[in-house]
């Protein structure tokens, strides 16, 4: 049996997977908003509870909104700031007397979709989470590519490729301190901002998409710009990784037009003279985080 925990800012979810990724049990509790130690205790209690109910011991993987620095062994880049600076994997491992694997939540998403999701059976998989931010994770032959600094796949903070004079004139400062990151042009809030500066109307992306579907010229213009920038951004990772599949997750992955609009545009911007990269919607949706955490241990490792 393999256990996965998705540690979020507001909830902690646990899943138990049996043979072939079959779900045995799943539950969630609110993330303690008190001391960091309470978060460790809550995760330990979840594992102990699930194992006593199922009468079996499992391997444990945890997805976190950040990463463990290979240099310091401490959590970094987490938007749940309470976690930053703690050796979360080691402390949880001590609390449960077993090794614990911890990975970034975008990496867990990619691993879940590569294991038994929309990219099952594909060798090189890039998972993109596009919503309030833009992030990614790389899975090769069923293994997460972490990287020397545990930032492999964090492509949302690359500069927007093939930036135009018009885009430079409307330069966007990213929260990371750099200008014109992919995220600062292609996230949901940034697409809303572009629409607002054109029309004065402040609406979420799905409203802009619906307006474009009914032929609204401003909405069409903004959405076309988004397709083009997103495709340019994806083309740069195609040139480096040449993935067998790219899986989209996050709120923007619900825009059904993306799966028609992106492939020819990516083909145009990438080096491949012909040959389209497979770009697909996720299969497991919000469950990919917790499922991918469980998949941090391969089936043959459960013993
Ligand atoms: Zn940035």
Please explain how this structure is put together.
There is one protein chain. The protein is an alpha/beta fold and 303 residues long. The chain has helices at 36-54, 88-96, 105-116, 165-169, 182-186, 188-199, 205-213, 217-241, 258-269, 288-294, and strands at 2-7, 11-17, 23-30, 59-64, 67-68, 75-76, 100-104, 124-130, 134-140, 143-144, 245-249, 279-281. Strands 3-2-1-4-7 form a five-stranded mixed sheet. A five-stranded mixed sheet has the order 10-9-8-11-12, sandwiched between helices. β11 (245-249), α9 and β12 form a beta-alpha-beta unit. α1 (36-54) packs across α2. The longest helix has 25 residues, at 217-241. The radius of gyration is 20 Å and the shape is globular. The mean pLDDT is 94. Zinc ion (ZN) binds next to loops.
Describe this structure in a few short sentences.
38% of the residues lie in helices and 20% in strands.
Low-confidence region ranges: none
Average pLDDT score: 94
Tally of helical segments: 10
The total beta strand count reads 12
Secondary structure blueprint with pairings:
Elements: E1 2-7, E2 11-17, E3 23-30, H1 36-54, E4 59-64, E5 67-68, E6 75-76, H2 88-96, E7 100-104, H3 105-116, E8 124-130, E9 134-140, E10 143-144, H4 165-169, H5 182-186, H6 188-199, H7 205-213, H8 217-241, E11 245-249, H9 258-269, E12 279-281, H10 288-294
Parallel strand pairs: 1-4, 4-7, 8-11, 11-12
Antiparallel strand pairs: 1-2, 2-3, 5-6, 8-9, 9-10
Bound molecules: zinc ion.
Zinc ion (ZN) binds at residues 157, 174, 176, 178, 181, 183.
């Amino acid at each position: 049996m393999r256990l996965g925990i998705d540690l979020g800012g507001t909830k902690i979810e646990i899943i138990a997977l049996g043979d072939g990724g079959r779900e045995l049990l799943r539950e969630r509790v609110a993330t303690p908003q008190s001391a960091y130690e309470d978060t460790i205790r809550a995760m330990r209690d979840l594992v102990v509870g699930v194992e006593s109910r199922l009468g079996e011991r499992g391997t444990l993987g945890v997805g976190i909104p950040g990463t463990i620095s290979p240099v310091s062994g401490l959590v970094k880049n987490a938007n749940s700031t309470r976690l930053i600076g703690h050796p979360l994997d080691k402390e949880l491992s001590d609390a449960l007397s077993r090794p614990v694997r911890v990975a970034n939540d975008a990496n867990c998403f990619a691993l879940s979709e590569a294991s038994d999701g929309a990219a099952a059976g594909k060798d090189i998989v890039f998972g993109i989470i596009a919503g309030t931010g833009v992030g990614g994770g790389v899975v090769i032959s069923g293994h997460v590519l972490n990287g020397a600094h545990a930032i492999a796949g964090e492509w949302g903070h690359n500069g927007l490729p093939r930036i135009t004079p018009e885009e430079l004139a409307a330069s966007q400062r990213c929260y990371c301190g750099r200008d014109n990151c992919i995220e600062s042009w292609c996230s949901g809030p940034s697409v809303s901002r572009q629409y607002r500066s054109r029309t004065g109307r402040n609406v979420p992306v799905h409203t802009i998409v619906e307006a474009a579907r009914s032929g609204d010229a401003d909405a069409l213009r903004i959405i076309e710009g988004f397709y083009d920038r997103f495709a340019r951004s994806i083309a740069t990772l195609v040139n480096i990784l040449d993935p067998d599949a790219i899986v989209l997750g996050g709120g923007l992955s619900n825009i059904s037009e993306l799966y028609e609009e992106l492939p020819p545009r990516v083909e145009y911007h990438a080096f491949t003279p012909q040959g389209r990269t497979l770009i697909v919607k996720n299969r497991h949706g919000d469950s990919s985080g917790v499922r991918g955490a469980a998949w941090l241990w391969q089936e043959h490792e459960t013993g």
